[in-house]
Amino acid sequence: MATLREIRQRIASVKSTQQITKAMKMVAAAKLRRAQENIVAIRPYAYDLRDLIGHLSQINTAEISNKLLEKRPVEKVLIVPVAADRGLCGGFNSFVVRSALERIEKYKDTGYELYTVGRKVSEFFGKRDYPIYNSKRNFFNHLSFEDALEISRDLISVYLSGKFDRIEIIYNEFKSAIQQDLVNEQFLPFVVEDSNTAEYNVVDYIYEPDVESILETIIPKNLNIQIWRILLESNAAEQGARMTAMDSATENAEEIKSKLTLHYNRARQAAITTELSEIVGGAEALKES
After folding, report:
1. Where in the sequence is the domain holding 236, given as residue range(s)?
2. pLDDT at 195
3. Quick check: is 2 in a domain?
């Protein structure tokens, strides 16, 4: 049985941990607010730009020839898992890793490589000798549009070079502070979604210089914006997951502290009762003598 001193030390340790988790929850909540503002700002532009490309792709299709839209036989795939640079955020990182492993299993006969984004996934796959084409890490604390541009340019470059025939991105999409949806989407070749283009009236406009030239300019810009949106989605989802995890940890610490305090009081009461019994017994023995 633990001594009273050991129980007091455990209670102090739990209190210290609780203070840390509470502080981390508050920090995550502050970061989440800023991340939410960024997501709200970028989503309309990113979605409308993607829909515009869908509208342009539906007209004058015979004249359009763009390498970023052309599908080709899949001989090698680049898988891009996007996770966090830090842990202590529940299953945020493990969900991305698990999904990436499922895609690896699917493409193990076809051929694949990884482009890891975030320190946690980079370390996971790096330690297990998976084929990593490139790795980006330790930038989510100072996330900028330049980071998105660098990743987007890398992905577009390797696709156009023919090294990879398909590029897939795995990330957590932010829904709310307590909900993140795991998304696996095809980045290249660029997929035009018919459901979004239905909002547009397909009219044969006259374009200058022409639709193909416009798409050659807009599609790379759209891909840059989509990577930026994905990084912002992942960052906001990470902060939401961390806030939830730290809130749960704080509540668990409070529960453990209550149980330890109850155990301490019972042990202390038992010790006092034992001491009183010994004193009474000693007094009785002195009377008899």
Report:
1. 22-245
2. 43
3. no
Residue 286 lies in a domain: no
Q: Which of 25, 12, 7 is nearest to 249 (CA)?
A: 25
Is 89 an annotated catalytic residue?
Answer: yes
Phi, psi for residue 192 in degrees, rounded to 5: -90, 125
pLDDT, position 236: 95
Helix-strand-coil percent breakdown of the chain, rounded to 5? 65, 15, 25
**Of 39, 89, 121, 236, which is the active-site residue?**
89
Q: What is the pTM of this model?
A: 0.86
In a domain, 211, yes or no: yes
* pLDDT averaged over every residue in the chain: 88
Domain count, the chain: 1
Assess whether pLDDT exceeds 90 at residue 216.
no
Nearest to 93 by CA among 137, 129, 151: 137
For 22-122, strand residue ranges (E) read: 77-81, 112-117
Query: Which tens digits make up the pLDDT trace of 170-179?
Result: 999 999 888 9
CATH number at residue 235: 3.40.1380.10
